[in-house]
Amino acid sequence: MFVRKVLAGRHPVYQMLQKDSHPCLPKLYEVAASDDYITVIEEYIEGQSCGAVELSERQFRQIVRELVLDADLAIKGSVLDDPFLYQLADQLAQRDR
To answer: In this predicted structure, what is the pLDDT of residue 25?
Structure first.
């Protein structure tokens, strides 16, 4: 089973995730980008969507910190202090909205 998403704008995080998959994230089967939108075909994972849960910024940062550390993706220092990695985490959290 899979999910097909068509998102307006540019979302480079999907191209990054397609190249560097991780067992804690849905598998991306296809990513097709144009100037106006991106189409993503990804693995369907049963459960509640991240977009259905309301979190404070503090709660969001804590969850992302735990996920990043659990996924062994932490780089020297605090990942959330790195603007690029924070943007990546933010896009991951908003992708189901």
So the answer is: 78
DSSP of 25-71: SPPEEEEEE-SSEEEEEEE---S--GGGS---HHHHHHHHHHHHHHT
Q: Residue 19 contacts by C-beta under 8 Å, 6 or more apart in sequence?
A: none
User: Same structural domain for residues 63 and 85?
Assistant: yes
Q: For residue 29, what are the domain limits?
A: 1-44
Q: pTM here?
A: 0.53
Check: CB of residue 49 under 8 Å from CB of residue 96.
yes
- Asked whether residue 63 falls in the same domain as residue 22, the answer is no
Distance CA 83, CA 89 (A): 10
